[in-house]
Design a protein that fits this description.
The structure is a single chain. The protein has 158 residues and is an alpha/beta fold. It has one domain: 3-Layer(aba) Sandwich (Rossmann fold). It contains five helices and five strands; from the N terminus they run E-H-E-H-E-H-H-E-E-H.
Length: 158
């Protein structure tokens, strides 16, 4: 089972909100696979947020990985695969039980080394960051308004 899936995802349909488009991810990940001599069996794409479980392409990908159709997944960042605890758990379970490898341009995650623990943290971090940022905004803005601070719109062009 020497093959790998390339999985590329963007969070929304809005092109202006994405840092790296699906096409750019595919280009970079294909180059990465070629540079490392990895055979790609299929390129899978999805344009949905991963904050909630229930992404059809991702769910199918994980089923195929668990059936042994490929050795691993090549993706831009670990958060392209999972941003919620259910999907993160599915990825970690596949690493532990099926030897799934996840390859990104910056790191490879494997069952056989300490990167499994890093994958726990990486898959939980984006969701936690979103929640924490929202909470911190309220912690700063609400007391300021209570003290009479005026909510201002940002300057034009910022």
């Amino acid at each position: 089972m020497p093959d790998y899936f390339i999985y590329s995802r963007k969070s929304s349909e809005a092109e202006d909100r994405q840092v790296l488009s699906i096409e750019s991810q595919i280009t970079e990940l294909t180059r990465l696979a070629e540079a490392r001599g990895l055979r790609v069996c299929e390129i899978l794409t999805e344009a949905r947020s991963a904050k909630e479980p229930g992404r059809a392409v991702f769910d199918g990908l994980m089923q195929r990985v668990c059936r042994g159709e490929a050795r691993g997944i090549i993706c831009w960042k670990l958060d392209r695969l999972a941003r919620n605890p259910i999907d993160g758990g599915a990825v970690i379970w596949a690493m532990k039980q099926h030897g799934l490898e996840i390859i990104t341009p910056h790191q490879t995650f494997r069952q056989s080394d300490d990167t499994t623990m890093l994958s726990y943290i990486d898959s939980a971090w984006p969701r936690n960051t979103s929640t924490t940022s929202a909470g911190m905004s309220n912690e700063v803005c609400v007391p300021k308004r209570k003290k009479g601070g005026v909510r201002r719109l940002p300057r034009s062009g910022t």
